[in-house]
Amino acid sequence: MTPPRLPQGESAVALWHHGAMDPTPNTPWYRRRAARLALELLVIVLIVVAVRGWMARDVASGEAPVFQAELLDGTPVALADYAGEPLLLYIWATWCHVCRLENPAIDRLARNHPVLTIAMQSGGPGEVADYLDERGLAFATIADLDGALSRRFGARGVPTLLIIDGHGAIRYRTVGYTTGWWLRARLWWIRTTG
What we know:
8 strands; 2 domains; two-stranded antiparallel sheet; Glutaredoxin; alpha/beta; 6-stranded mixed sheet
C-alpha cells in the first residue's frame, strides 16, 4: 500500500490537525479529546502514586514497633492500648506547613476513630500543648523532642501516616498530605476486612 499523497503546499501535520489524516474519521472530535484527557489524567495519577510510593519506601511495614511513651499531659500510652481496633498513627511537626493544612482533618477524624499523633522535633510537651491549644486541636499527642520515636517508624519526613490494625500490623502507610475522607475510607476498610 502506498502512503497518501499530500496536496502541494500542505504538510502532514497541518492535514492531521485539520482532520484530513485522522485515523478515526468517524469518531467525533469531543470523544477523541475526552479519550486523550482520560489518558493524560491516568498518566498523572500513575506518576503521583509512584512518587508517593517512593516517598514512603523507608516507612515501617509489617509489625508496628512496640513503644511506651507519655502524652502531653503525662498520661502513659503504649501501642497495646489500642489493640482490637485500627489506629491512625500521625507523625507531624509544628514547623511543617503541610501538617498545618492536614491537622484539622486529623482532629475531626480523632472524634470518631482512635488517633495517636507524634509531634516530631517540635519542642517539649508544653510547647506542643500551646501549639495545639492556639489552633483548637485536641488529638492525643506524644512530644518526640529528638525524633527517636518517629525514626522507629521510619519517618524521615512529615506528615507520615500509618494505619495499624487491631493486631498490631501496619496496613497502610504514606508520606505527605492525605485527605480526611481517604483516611476514613482506609480505616473503614481495615475495620471491615479485619
